[in-house]
User: Fold this.
Amino acid sequence: MAKQLKFTGTEKVLDIYVTDLRHRARYTPIESGDGQVRVELLDEPAAVHVLLAVPEYGRVWCTADNSGEGYSEGGEVPLLDSLAMSRIRECERRMMTLNLEEPPDEQFEAAWDLFDLGRPLESLHQGILAGEAIEHASATLALVLRNSEIDPFPKIASTLFGERLGEYSIGAGPDWHNAILQPNFLHPRGRWDMIANLCNATTIPNFWRWVEFGRDHQRWAGIEEILSFCDEKGMEAKSFSIFWGGIGGMPPWFRELDLSRKLKAIEKWTTDLVSRLKGRISCWEIANEMHDWDFANQIPKLSHDQAFEITKLISEITASIDPGTPRIINHCCPWGEYVQRAERQIWSPLSFLDEICEQDIEFEGVGVQMYYPSRNLMDIMLHLDRFAEFGKSIWITKMGVPSGNSKETPETEQVDMSIGWRGPWEQENQADWAEMFFLMAMSRMYIRNITYWDFDDERAFIRHAGLLDQNGEPKQSYFRLLEICQTYGAGGPAEWPEEED
Assistant:
């Protein structure tokens, strides 16, 4: 009979999922009600992750893992106590790992004091802040000690195209109706210099649907324009995914093919793309979001074996045409919380990579999307470390957070006070978050590229997430990242804009 763990005091829980202690998400029977959550335990020690609104911080995922030991026995546990103590113990382990003799700020002691006073939610808040302070202190020291001539900093990147244009999206949809006149998703040319000032890399928009909306009618003008600009400015260009099961990765004509014809079309598309652009691309993203993420598998409905077959096919073709250029496999939803909603055992990004490696599919890097993650910064960095355990370079292919919370029109905006980071999202804490994220990520030598995806609000995938506002004016976050590039000699020229008289 399965053992059941009962958490009490769960009224504030907004969502929940379970992993093993290696953070591989697994579907687990969970029941909730009457202020309790009952979890059927795994065959190995489990960690339970819950989403809740932490006062004065924001809506964030937190972990109860029995102080790092995991839960393997049934019983009753006060949830908030477990969350607070698990965070305190994680901070202690990080200080030991990072050789910090004492915490860099007063939040760690405050977390202990509040826990002893029986105020676990406040203790959890201080523990989260303590963890971020620990990671920030370690990153700052590592950057000071780093010799960038021997160990170069990651490329700093953003996109010269936007995700949205009116009703259309280059990735999400809907389809446009004219195969001859594709929407022009490129940012206005006047903003490209602002990107090149900050960045020394970009991603090209080789979305298959955009390039070949009509079969055998490939349109490369936008991509060629971007690559010419990269040549002029000395910027690296990484590809978007060669295959992606989302609507933007599949032209309408492709969706109706049977599997054998799909494979032939993928082979031709890969050959056409890599043959045309080889020598001008710094990295080939060979597959995106193939880890049982529904949005990326709505139309093809690939089995696991088919996902392996496609990934292996693209990997081998790419290597044969452009040997030596790294190939990466990209992932969204990196923690795999969606596994619980599937109500069956499916892949999370980490378990997908486990099996990719077992299949002997060759690749050199792991792509991780980190935008709007609802995670504290220590947990984000620890999770990037888990991806690095595969021994590959890490490419942060998409990241960013908003400078406002609203999802409605400006006339009807309502700010949800529980969403944000250290308070509701505004320009200032967007800049603070971006600064801390970049410093922490730049300090990790395995990270090869950091791409801030939404450069401006006008065409942003995430509302308000741009470094420029709707009118193309720089936000605080743009200037904060400019300061980082100036300080460490990373990114583009990082020339400060001249002040108007």
Remarks:
- The longest strand covers residues 46-54.
- The chain has two domains: 4-145, 155-488.
- The two ends are 77 Å apart (CA to CA).
- Residues 408-412 have pLDDT under 50 and may be disordered.
